[in-house]
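Weekly structure sync, notes
Attendees: PL (lead), two postdocs, one rotation student
Agenda item 3: pending single-chain targets
PL asked that the sequence for the first pending target be pasted directly into the notes so everyone works from the same version. It is reproduced below exactly as submitted, 188 residues in total.
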Amino acid sequence: MNHRLSPLLLLAALLVLLLGSNCSRQVWQNHYAKGFDTRVYIVRHGEKELTPGLPDPPLTAAGQQRALALRDSLQRDGMLAGVFSTATARTKSTAQPLADKLRLPVQPYDAKQLAVLARRVRQEYRGKSVLVVGHSNTILETVEAFGAARPVPTIGDNEYDYLLEVRIPRDSTRQPTASARRYGAASH
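Predicted structure, written out during the meeting:
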């Protein structure tokens, strides 16, 4: 009697094992995260409506395009596990496309309590990546709250295209570092 398994049956059995072993993104992240640096991506919200007197200006069409460019820039980071935004419509709208794509909630944070955010990310997202969406006058301070030096001296009111990245080494004796790059369409 020949008990050789056909390749198709073997493939089906392997698929059942993989599906039954709960190999979700979260399980993978939790298992392997301890060996990776923590990455914190920090951006300013996309272009906002400049009509005077608006208490909470929404994104313009260009700002909505920037939110999509952010999604496209970061969705390939397989360790992205958290998305944070201040409470304004423009920051939440900038974060939402990426959060939706990754099926993550947009979590609020207080830009006046950056040390609290940094402590939370260090404790709950060690070895993973997070996105933090803030404002032109808070994103460099956010970099500093995570222990890194500013990668650029200032960010102007008309600059929306900076994507800052803080790397917090898994080796706690090493200093966090920050870098800056541009994403999406150039700011005007």
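Discussion points:
- The domain at 35-182 is CATH 3.40.50.1240 (Rossmann fold).
- Residues 75 and 98 are 7 Å apart (CA to CA).
Action: rotation student to compare against the earlier draft before next sync.
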